[in-house]
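Minutes, project huddle
Topic: does the predicted pose make sense with 2,6-diaminopimelic acid bound?
PN asked that the exact inputs be recorded in the minutes so nobody has to dig through chat later. Recorded below.
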Amino acid sequence: MLVHFTKMHGLGNDFVMIDLITQRARIDAAQVRRLADRRFGIGFDQLLVVEPPRDPDMDFRYRIYNADGSEAENCGNGARCFARFVRDQRLTHKREIRVETAGGPLMLAVQHDGRVRVDMGQPRFTPSALPFDAPGDRPLHALEVDGARLEIGVVSMGNPHAVLQVADVDSAPVAELGPLIEAHPRFACNVNAGFMEVVAPDYIRLRVFERGTGETWACGTGACAAVATGIRQGLLKSPVTVALPGGELSVEWAGPDASLVMVGPAERVFDGRVALR
Ligand SMILES: N[C@H](CCC[C@H](N)C(=O)O)C(=O)O
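Predicted holo structure (tokens), as shared on screen:
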């Protein structure tokens, strides 16, 4: 069966969008892995599947699949592309869009400049929210990785993040440490691993080795995780510009009881049709 899809990206974090409101298809982990392959499939970091909401107060539901077929609770760059997609597809004319995700509801606003503002919800630092095996909540946790003792910040943005401060992102050992942190046994559901260089209290550089995908050119929840843990450690002050390999995001956080708010672009690349088994 041929299914229409749209290829999009948020700062080079690339997605395939499939609308299962006007189409029908069965999506499973094996399909996702096949479509994710950049030679034998379409190629993407994540597949985003758009569906009708379960909660009548919501406008849509969208599911997030990493390239390895695992389902994720949240995707910041994906949320911006989702908002652009549902309007481009005339599935809604709204600019303020409420969407259900596995990690909870998100409020999206498509701005007149084309960028999308996402209310990413409140960060949750308690280890059980990730989950992370730790005796209690603190700004920094010790983590033994490959014989080295790292100091990491941990936070849930709906999905789990570990953030390591480094002196220079360009020379950070992302390829070596990323997979080891991602699959560390103290993270029962694995974790996204962020490598943060603090340039100034309002400016960081960031690389993210994403759970289920590997290093991506940008990670929206990773940007929020780095800002939230950095502010908590007294290193950063809101608003913060996050410079990722694919471009910059703006992240604001007014403090513990407030949501993080992220603003950034969403680009449409091409449309296509693909056979789903
Ligand atoms: N790999 C992530 C999901 C995608 C997040 C990222 N692409 C973003 O923009 O937030 C996870 O397994 O939690």
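Observations noted during the meeting:
- The chain has four helices and 18 strands.
- The first strand starts at residue 2 and ends at 10.
No decisions taken; revisit at the next huddle.
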